């Protein structure tokens, strides 16, 4: 502008000017008109307010603004680009747009120490009630740094924030330092109502996406409350695809957290509260992927409670977590109400578990498909109120993995695993290299309507359990081993077929010293269900002769002796009632949570009235199990 133009602006000859470019003609998205505003008090922001000498020119952006109006262009110096984008976001316009091109960002901040983790420094800073929209070919690229921490985009204690589109690239391939693991693509600390959509994040020094709490000036912790993320793809990040360190009401749909590698934990998603106040609760993953990470696909557990986490309609496979450490999806320590349902999980030779629960009460594994992997439940603390229902597990013949696969480990205490339902699961092992051992060490639980084939051993241990209507085919040892002290339990209506010669036991069903049992209406066959091969076993049952108070009736041994010779003597009518009642127990299974609907002919030792009373009590207990959602039918 020449001096005469400035004079005419000052004297009101011109109402304003049309800007064709900041630095050269055409470098703005379009010409823009600025008006003279003598009363303007705000400083020059390089975009909506421009000072020319004493003249103040203003343009009010009302709906959307391109960052180019603030002088932010592709391939500029990273410092200039970061400053100018932040000016645009701090302006009055609610929607900020970044178009095609590479925009280098200064996510690191030299004034912060490593312990700050850049919660409130570095990168592009979102503001309350702002929407950042990027084109599909917009790339925000962290400049090379030796700093251990950075944020390409951050939302620190902000509300009503939306970030949509674009690509964020970290500096893992250009990083000039060696330490640290806190370089983040997007960092959200506290705040509320955050929306993320259609964003690709990769190659960060730490996490692609990091969610955590913040502390105010009085050192009071604040959780993030409310985040929705849709179609976020976070891949090849050095620490993990996403860390959730604190927050509630977090919803992830159609997202992918893949290929994390470089520094531990290397998970797709790690839900990891860091201190006792940073709880995580009410989290949903729907139609998400957790693939090919160097550890778990999703890992949950830390220093505070993690609760009400649901993973549904999702996929987890190719993750390299070793079998002894957990599964493709793992929950451990201080967790409850974890739900994995309607999802697909696939294992490998080194990773034989699809889902592992460690001390995770009130959890559910429902309707999932497991390929070459198994669900597992471990931990000495145990899991109360667990439901494992309707899952399909299959180990294929051509699977290269081999080893022992456990449901539970044998040292787990039944009293720590109470009120469990394990029902309607299909577990097919077609691989001869897999030794499948199921230890149901439970109390007051129901195991029913499961189909299990080609397994090594099933152990039932614990009191007040119901094991009924299961199909057990082609075991390699005892088909069913009822351990000692499994008092007040019911084993009823099961079909047991076939048993292989290797590591041969003497009986299909072995019953240790356990009192007050009901063993009724089980069918035991020598023939393999699948091949018709005849088992070398000769006995249907081994019954410990010291058992007190047992109802044994209606069992059908096909081409087998009823009892092992050293066990309870055989009875030609297959009716054995041992009555050694005590003052504590007036009859068999007085305290058992069994099922029964009609009285039976019990022979000479019980009156029909006594049995009717027992069955009435069992029906009452069955009703209570339904109320507790342990029994569904």
From TrEMBL:
Residues 121-270 form the Right handed beta helix domain. It comes from the Bacteria. SMART domains: PbH1. InterPro entries: Beta_helix, PbH1, Pectin_lyas_fold, Pectin_lyase_fold/virulence. This is Right handed beta helix domain-containing protein. It comes from Chryseobacterium artocarpi.
């Amino acid at each position: 502008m020449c001096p005469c133009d400035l004079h005419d602006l000052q004297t009101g000859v011109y109402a304003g000017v049309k800007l064709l470019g900041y630095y050269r003609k055409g470098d703005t998205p379009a010409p823009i008109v600025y008006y003279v505003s003598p009363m303007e008090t705000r400083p020059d922001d390089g975009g909506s307010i421009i000072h020319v000498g004493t003249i103040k020119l203003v343009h009010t952006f009302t709906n959307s603004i391109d960052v180019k109006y603030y002088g932010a262009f592709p391939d500029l110096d990273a410092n200039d680009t970061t400053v100018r984008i932040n000016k645009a976001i701090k302006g009055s316009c609610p929607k900020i747009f970044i178009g095609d091109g590479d925009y280098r960002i200064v996510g690191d901040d030299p004034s912060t120490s490593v312990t700050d983790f850049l919660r409130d420094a570095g990168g592009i800073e979102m503001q309350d009630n702002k929407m950042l929209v990027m084109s599909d070919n917009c790339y925000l690229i962290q400049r090379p740094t030796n700093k251990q921490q950075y944020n390409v985009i951050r939302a620190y204690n902000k509300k009503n924030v939306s970030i949509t589109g674009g690509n964020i690239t970290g500096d893992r391939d250009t990083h000039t330092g060696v330490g640290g693991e806190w370089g983040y693509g997007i960092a959200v600390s506290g705040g509320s109502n955050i929306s993320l959509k259609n964003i690709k994040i990769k190659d960060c020094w730490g996490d692609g996406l990091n969610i955590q709490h913040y502390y105010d000036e009085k050192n009071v912790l604040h959780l993030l409350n409310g985040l929705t993320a849709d179609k976020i793809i976070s891949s090849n990040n050095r620490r993990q695809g996403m860390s959730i360190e604190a927050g509630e009401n977090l919803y992830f749909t159609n997202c992918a957290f893949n290929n994390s590698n470089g520094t531990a934990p290397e998970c797709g998603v790690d839900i990891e509260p860091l201190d006792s106040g940073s709880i995580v609760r009410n989290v949903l993953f729907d139609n998400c992927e957790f693939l090919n990470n160097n550890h778990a696909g999703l890992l949950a557990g830390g220093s505070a409670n993690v609760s009400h986490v649901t993973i549904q309609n999702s996929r987890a496979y190719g993750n390299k977590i070793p079998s002894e450490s957990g599964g493709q999806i793992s929950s451990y320590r201080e967790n409850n109400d974890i739900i994995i349902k309607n999802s697909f999980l696939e294992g490998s030779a080194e990773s034989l578990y699809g889902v592992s629960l460690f001390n995770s009460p009130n959890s559910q594994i429902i309707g999932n498909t497991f390929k070459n992997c198994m669900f597992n439940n471990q931990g000495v603390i145990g899991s109360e109120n667990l439901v494992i229902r309707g899952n399909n597990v299959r180990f294929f013949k051509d699977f290269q993995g081999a080893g022992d696969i456990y449901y539970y480990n044998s040292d787990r205490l039944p009293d720590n695993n109470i009120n469990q339902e394990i029902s309607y699961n299909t577990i097919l092992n077609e691989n001869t290299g897999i030794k499948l051992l199921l230890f149901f060490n439970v109390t007051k639980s129901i195991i029913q309507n499961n189909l299990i084939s080609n397994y090594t051993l099933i152990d039932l241990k614990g009191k007040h359990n119901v094991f009924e209507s299961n199909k057990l085919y082609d075991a390699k040892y005892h088909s069913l081993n009822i351990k000692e002290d499994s008092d007040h339990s019911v084993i009823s209506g099961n079909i047991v077929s076939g048993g292989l010669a290797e590591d041969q036991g003497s009986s299909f069903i072995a019953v240790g010293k356990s009192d007050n049992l009901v063993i009724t209406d089980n069918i035991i066959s020598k023939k393999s269900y699948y091949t018709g091969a005849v088992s070398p076993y000769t006995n249907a049952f081994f019954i410990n002769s010291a058992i007190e108070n047992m109802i044994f009736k209606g069992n059908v041994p096909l081409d087998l002796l009823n009892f092992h010779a050293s066990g309870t003597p055989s009875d030609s009518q297959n009716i054995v009632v041992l009555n050694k009642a005590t003052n504590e127990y007036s009859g068999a299974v007085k305290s058992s949570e069994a099922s029964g609907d009609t009285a039976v002919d019990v022979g000479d030792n019980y009156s029909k009235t006594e049995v009717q009373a027992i069955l009435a009590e069992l029906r009452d207990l069955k009703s209570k199990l339904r109320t507790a959602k342990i029994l569904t039918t």
